[in-house]
Design goal:
The complex is a heterotrimer.
Chain A: H1 6-20, H2 22-27, H3 42-51, H4 60-81, E1 85-87, E2 94-96, H5 99-106, H6 110-121, H7 127-130
Antiparallel strand pairs in A: 1-2
Chain B: H1 5-25, E1 41-42, E2 53-57, H2 65-78, E3 100-104, H3 105-108, H4 119-123, E4 125-129, H5 137-141, E5 147-149, E6 155-157, H6 167-171, E7 178-179, H7 188-191, E8 207-208, H8 214-217, H9 224-228, E9 234-238, H10 245-252, E10 255-256, E11 268-271
Parallel strand pairs in B: 2-11
Antiparallel strand pairs in B: 2-9, 3-4, 5-6, 7-8, 10-11
Chain C: H1 10-36, H2 51-64, H3 67-75, H4 85-106, H5 115-118, H6 125-153, H7 161-184, H8 197-223, H9 230-261, H10 264-274, H11 284-302, H12 304-308, H13 310-337, H14 352-382
Helix pairs in contact in C: 1-14, 2-4, 2-7, 2-8, 2-13, 3-7, 4-6, 4-14, 6-7, 7-8, 8-9, 8-13, 9-10, 9-11, 10-13, 11-13
The chains are: A mainly alpha, B alpha+beta, C mainly alpha.
Amino acid sequence: MNIYNKGPVFLGIVIFLALALFPFYNNFGKTNKKPDPKTDTPEIIEYEKLNGKKECVEPKAFMRGEHMVLLNDWRDGVVRDAYRGYISKANGKRFNMSIQNGCMKCHSSKKKFCDECHNYLAVKPFCWDCHIQPKEKEEAKS
Amino acid sequence: MSMDRRKFLKVAGISSILGFGASVASARNYAGQKGLVPPQVDANKETLTAKRWAMVVDMSKFKTDEDYKKVINACHTTHNVPDFRKADGSVDRKMEIKWIWTAPYERTFPGQDNKYMSEHMKDMPFMVLCNHCENPPCVRVCPTKATFKLQDGITMQDMHRCIGCRFCMAACPYGSRSFNWTDPRAASNLKGELPNKQYPTRTKGVVEKCTFCSERLQEGKLPACVEAAPKGGILFGDMEDPNSEVRKIVTNKYTIRRKPDLGTGPAVYYLIGGGDHA
Amino acid sequence: MLEKALEGSKKYWAWVFFLGGLAAVGCYFYFQQFMYGLGITGLHRDVTWGLYIGQFTFLVGVAASAVMLVIPYYLHDYKKFGKIVILGEFLAISAVIMCILFIMADMGQPMRVMNIMLYPAPNSMVFWDVVVLNGYLFLNLVIGWVTLGSDRKGIAPPKWIKPFIYLSIPWAISIHTVTAFLYAGIPGRHFWLSAILAARFLASAFAGGPSLLIILALIVRKVTKFDPGKEPIQALGKIVAYAMFANIFFLGLEVFTAFYSGIPGHAHPFHYLYAGLDGHSELVPMMWTSSIFAVVSLVMLWVPGIRKNEGTLALACVMLFISLWIDKGFGLIIGGFVPNPFEEVHPYWPTMPETMITIGVWAIGLLILTFLYKIAITVREQTVGVEIDH
């Protein structure tokens, strides 16, 4: 078989494959454990003891899928409209609209809660460029 | 209908542009509406409210350097304002960020001095900060509405939205705005434990300034500078309320504002010849 | 037609790689700026815009100046510009792209730039500047491409392009007017708060842009087989002379108002730029260089004997270009910020990385210009002798 411009053509194919397959060989051999965000911080266990159940601002499934939209809305609500309280549609309770002084008061481990999924999905939200994450506590489960 | 390759690419290109535009235009949040509205959200009950927040500064109440420093410190620690220093410990003017500071009389009120005025008067320090103008040029020029007016008159800064074009800094006739030339957490005072863990820092590339402590008002507290000032040094209240202390002073006493001729309508008033006021 | 940029002499490729190298160096420093922040520049809280925004402002003028060819050719049927009008349009394209790059380089949060579209603020002049600049880029791309494509085939351009060409005339005026409005509506910046600023911008644009075009046309004649012709270059020289006269006249008006009125705020920036203020005279030599070059180049362009000699004409154009670059690409911006709102002088001088980024953007612009001119000139070389009638 006679192929014109063999050199450039094959070089082109090699470059294309190198680029196209980058995600595969880049992640090859890395552990690919399913993310497992933990909701067993001392604060949440304490809450469960007092209230008999775990509950968040909205149901788990909603929070999983929509927390980023909710946080964006909270951000605009607080900064631009001076709202501070969010009334849960699930349980009618009022929550302080704040990531730093709200969310993270219960979910007090960013590593085990936020990073777990974000690392898995390779998303890098820039919340923590400004907002202050809680200090990671040493493993101190009794 | 047959279509040659050129035409196909044209149509495909144009429709993908249109499709992208449409998807942006139709982007909505989970509730299918723009933003959160009551009763889904509400303000804190303890929030201090006003039709028009305003400040009266009475410099005669400030006696010592300590008095100024306390005010500046209170503000800057409350808001995790970075303090960039040079190797020799002096302020690094190239990186400097400040929300409230002092400037001599002749600098604060240019053109209001004269050559017969005593050096003492010319050099007298005045507390300066964002004037939360009635008609703010910074808001007018902002291309993203990152700086905007709240209903209570506060000129607010949305550091999440700011693109760092610094047009507002060019527009502000009071030099009240600062820019984050690098990550503020690189500053010596923010490297370790942050001064206030309830309040965020900023990120590099955004503009910041005094917010009249909007976040503290929402918790029922007065601005940090007001609390830290000597008694009566900085008064804060609703200028639209005829019975408020600030209104009474501005009505009955002689107060001046910075560059009133520019039509910006500053909400920070300086009481002259204070002593005992209303 | 793009393929024509891909074949050329060794010299052509050496030039392309030289520019590419400068652009790469600029990118390297931009990456540093991106990671560290704008603290890498010489800017600070008192002078918040500098070299980048100066270049942006200057280049908007270069872009707008294409109308100085379009108006005589399309409105007054001045046929002699037929060969070089495309050079003006392609210069506009590369200038607008440089403008956009300089704006991006100046942004603290470049990743958020789409916020301008997501939260449009029509009360901000930046919004309108984005609209008119992109519109102008689009217009010139379409007009340049369509007319050149027709030239290549030796046919008249399609009729539908005419409205775009006529639209591009007021549009060019608008880009520089809106750019002037960025500055001219700000209270408390006395140096910019002038009703005549937009007119000044246009005058300096119509002098600076065509002077650059003359230089480019002379280079094109030297390095290619395409001759833009003697007459159009002379005609451009006259345009430059008149525009430069207007520019100097307008600057004189500013000086009169600032000093005769005796209002200190209006005079301070002039003091700082031309004489020094509070012991700071960093910009004085530059500003006087600008002034002297301005007057000398104007005289050179005015005297027919000097203008008609293409050697001295080129020299006059280079001096004029440098003069306007200093005046508008540097002095104008710094003069707005010094003294600051507290009437203190805090000078600014660009840093090395900032300068390299600036050179990098210019290199990218010149690279685009090189490709576009290569395409246009190759087409022209192939159609030598064919009368072009649009």
